[in-house]
Design brief:
Number of strands: 16
Helix content: 10-25%
Radius of gyration: 24 Å
Strand content: 35-45%
Structural class: mainly beta
């Protein structure tokens, strides 16, 4: 192991890790990014309804956007942004390789310079502002990563959003025993109605059926009475191959529920056909589930009346 002398006189870090991390400070994470939508009244209305904010400044022909929506106009959604630079991914890959695989948002700061109004076209630049030296927290040891996004409307600076996260290695903690699932307590029953009865009939026959629009051919899951793409009510089904990957996941620890034995992983699985569904990821410890992990469909009988589609880690048979 080599030690690299820190320029600030602090203790050198093993293998020069911190020096490499600090080298990302000032690098661009996104340059000339473009908001996916102009500032618009529907998004403002949804935000205000979610926040319970009925201020009259956010309604009517002269409406402005709530200042705290600043980040909303730059977010890429599930599909992400295409203009992001490689620096952000390189930094996170370096942290992951060093064992700092967990992440938690810690705080954000915003500065507002001018109100945003419906019709404003948003552009932004994001820079990695700083990476802290190794810090020890109750969650575990890790590095705080701060990014700063300058948000512009019509080319003029409208505000700054500074976002800080902790990339950390979880501290080893004794696991408190969780009460096992109570004998005889059944899982909640799925709600079966005329719109999704065919899906559950397929599950009973060990077939995962995906709806296909009879007009435009778009696939959809979960089942819906009409096509979200073209509005058609005509449809048939295709059977999923069973192959998929973990698109995202959460680990459930709390609250405890009598029919479940936490912790357990709940995954958002992207099927080979392109649609996504939520179910349990089985066959691997909950803390080994990873985004991109290949999985394979199987059917799990949870009691004498109920069988559910789940996904076993490992992919191919």
């Amino acid at each position: 192991m080599t030690l690299t002398q820190r320029q600030d006189g602090a203790e050198p870090s093993p293998d020069g890790l911190y020096e490499r991390l600090a080298g990302f400070a000032g690098r661009a994470a996104a340059t000339a990014g473009v908001g996916k939508d102009p500032v618009n009244l529907p998004m403002i209305r949804h935000w205000c309804e979610a926040m319970g904010d009925a201020h009259p400044a956010y309604r009517g022909p002269d409406a402005v956007a709530p200042p705290t929506m600043l980040q909303a106009w730059t977010m890429g959604g599930l599909s992400g942004h295409t203009g992001r630079s490689s620096a952000h991914e390189e930094l996170f890959a370096l942290l992951d390789a060093a064992g700092f695989t967990s992440v938690v948002a810690t705080d954000c700061e915003q500065e507002y310079l001018r109100p945003l109004r419906p019709g404003d076209e948003i552009t932004f630049d994001t820079v990695i502002e700083s990476v802290s030296a190794l810090k020890t927290t109750k969650l575990g040891a890790g590095h705080f990563v701060t990014t700063r996004t300058d948000v512009r409307a019509g080319g003029q600076l409208a505000g700054t959003h500074r976002f800080r996260i902790l990339k950390y290695a979880p501290a080893a903690r004794p696991r408190r025993p969780e009460p096992p699932a109570e004998p005889g307590v059944r899982r909640p029953r799925p709600v079966v109605n005329r719109d999704n009865a065919g899906f559950w009939e397929g599950v009973a026959a060990h077939r995962l059926l995906i709806q296909r629009c009879g007009d435009c051919g778009a696939l959809r899951l979960p089942w819906l009475p009409g096509c979200a793409d073209c509005g058609s009510g005509e449809w048939d089904t295709v059977e999923a191959s069973g192959a998929g990957t973990v698109y995202s996941y959460v680990v459930m620890h709390h609250p405890p529920f009598p029919a479940f034995d936490p912790p357990y992983a709940v995954g958002l699985v992207e099927l080979a056909e392109g649609v996504r569904m939520i179910s349990n990821v089985v066959g691997v410890p909950y803390d080994k589930v990873r985004i991109g992990m290949p999985v394979r469909l199987e059917f799990l009988r949870v009691d004498e009346e109920l069988e559910l589609p789940v996904f076993r880690a490992g992919g191919e048979d």
